[in-house]
Amino acid sequence: MFKWAPNECSVRTGCARSSAQPVRGDLAVRLQEALDRAQERIQELEAKRQGGGVATLQAQMDGLRQELVRTEGRLLEARERESQAEADRARAIEERARAVADLEFLKDRVLKKRREQQRQAQQEAAGRMGSVFGSLDDIVSLGDPSVGRGGAQPEGPTATRPPVPDRRREREEEEIFGL
Q1: How many structural domains compose the chain?
Q2: What is the pTM of this model?
Q3: Residue 76 domain boundaries
Q4: 87 contacts 79 by C-beta, under 8 angstroms
Q5: Rounded-to-integer distance, Cα 10 and Cα 43, Å
Q6: How far is CA 69 from CA 11, 38, 61, 153, 162, in A?
Q7: pLDDT tens readout for residues 100-118
Q8: Could you name the domain of life of the organism this protein comes from (predicted)?
């Protein structure tokens, strides 16, 4: 709480503002100014009290001291609200950062899963193609007279060609990431 000291500062002496720290925000500034005005008025009344009319001045000073206490309380509340608002803003920023990191993680998992599914589909397609047609040599030998009667020989071990590059993955990534 602010401690009042007589003859510490007045408008006439040109002293600096009170020792209370200035606070950002319109309400805090207005409360600080009200606090400064109350302190100045108390000092003026203290000077008058020393000159005479002690009872009246004492009552006025007591009233001003009460007003000073109320103003200090409001200033403290304003500072607490501002501090809480700053903490809330910091928490919101942290939550957004976590959400972005989670989203990136999930996108990576989805892409890995899609790539794995595409790889499996390519392997299955290559296996089906190999079992239907056999090897390229079997297909060519179907019309070859040197093979003999009865057409092609029974299917030997199936040879498969390496899979053709699949451009679907690139297109899907472009759709997902908007590249």
Answers
A1: 1
A2: 0.36
A3: 26-143+157-177
A4: no
A5: 7
A6: 21, 10, 12, 107, 86
A7: 999 999 999 999 999 999 9
A8: Eukaryota
Q: How far apart are CA 142 and CA 165, in angstroms?
A: 29
User: Is 64 part of any domain?
Assistant: yes
Task: Say if 48 falls within a structural domain.
Answer: yes
In DSSP notation, the chain reads -PPP-TTS--TTTTPPPPSSPP-SSHHHHHHHHHHHHHHHHHHHHHHHHHHS-HHHHHHHHHHHHHHHHHHHHHHHHHHHHHHHHHHHHHHHHHHHHHHHHHHHHHHHHHHHHHHHHHHHHHHHHHHHHHHHH--HHHHHGGG-GGG-TTSSPPP-SPP-PPPPPP-HHHHHHHHHHT-
Residue 111 domain-assigned (yes or no): yes
pLDDT digits (tens, 9 = 90+) for 120-156: 998 888 777 665 555 555 656 665 555 554 445 555 5
171 pLDDT band, cuts 50/70/90, is confident
Residue located via tokens 């805090």: 28
Residues 6+ apart with CB under 8 A from 39: 2, 4, 9, 18, 68
152 domain-assigned: no
